[in-house]
Amino acid sequence: MYSEKVMDHFQNPRNVGEIEDASGVGTVGNAKCGDIMRMYLDIDENGVIREARFKTFGCGAAVATSSMATELVKGKTVQEALQVTNRAVMEALDGLPPVKVHCSLLAEEAIHAALWDYAEKNHIVIEGLEKPKADIHEGEEEEEY
Ligand code: FES
Question: Which of 43, 73, 76, 80 would you call most buried, defined as having the most Cβ atoms within 10 angstroms of its Cβ?
């Protein structure tokens, strides 16, 4: 059912943990399955992602996709990191079963949430980045203010 890469990243997830004083932190959840993912990014003064870590309370596919997502964004600029879509993460993992595709959306949204946090902290606008949803299952995002 799962590719070898998915199993590998699930059993040996890369970049698990937190980053102290992270440049950006994003947390997203999926109310339907109850899974939660938190992404930490350390971004240097040139807008390059030095370090990415994550904590995921979720299914195996969520762990594998967050692991792969952190690997993919490391060394990229914030602009390039926007190209790390759930599709890109899935491709890097040699695919996911159809019922698990939503898990990879959590990884994409968590990256976006962390980038959004970084942009807000630095009063910058990242072109192409939309305000992420806190819950990817919601059709409509909630206004915070
Ligand atoms: Fe919820 Fe995978 S089942 S993220």
Answer: 73
Report the topology of domain 4-121: Sufe protein. Chain: A (3.90.1010)
- The CA 106 to ligand 1 mean position distance, Å, reads 8
Collect the ranges in the chain with pLDDT lower than 70. 138-145
- Ligand 1 centroid to residue 29 C-alpha, Å: 9
Q: Could you count the other beta carbons within 10 Å of the beta carbon of residue 115?
A: 25
The type of residue at 94 is D
Q: Which residue, among 28, 102, 23, has the nearest Cα to 65 in the 3D structure?
A: 102
Q: Domain coordinates of the chain in residue numbers?
A: 4-121
| Burial letters 9-23, b for 16+ CB under 10 A, else e | bbeebbbeeebeebb
